Model the fold of this input.
Amino acid sequence: MRSHLARLVAPLDDPRLAPFVEGLEHINGQADKAPGFVWRLVGEGSADATGLRPFGDDVIVNLTVWETLDALWDFTYRTDHLDYLRRRRDWFVRYGDAYTVAWWVPAGHRPSLDEAAARLALVRDNGPTPDAFTLRVPFPAAGDASDRSPTGDPHSVPSENAL
Done:
């Protein structure tokens, strides 16, 4: 599982965010079709999670589940997502020391935003551990990796981001 927080430089309807907003459908569509993609959080009646604002009006969240860390990494760095990742500073301001977190979840589990926030707090308080880590400092799943999934974030960077 992977979760990501991003603090917007302006409201989503601001012209500065137009390229990001216009690309959401395309990037989310690529994620949905990517090998190893399992699930992503969306708002009720929405195609994405930008309307969910549990951490403040200027913070958007991304919460996804992937079969493997390799699948998440490939999507993040080997698709059009990388172009958006490179432009993230055009659309977002830094959100603290940790704004992305990954952790292993049982197959079929759909993590909540509360769960993601707790995992992010673990990374912030303890650094990467087997319970909450980053793509830069990953940990393998305990036991058989075939029955567990990491969360990924189709909008964020695996280097150092978190929810």
The radius of gyration is 14 Å.
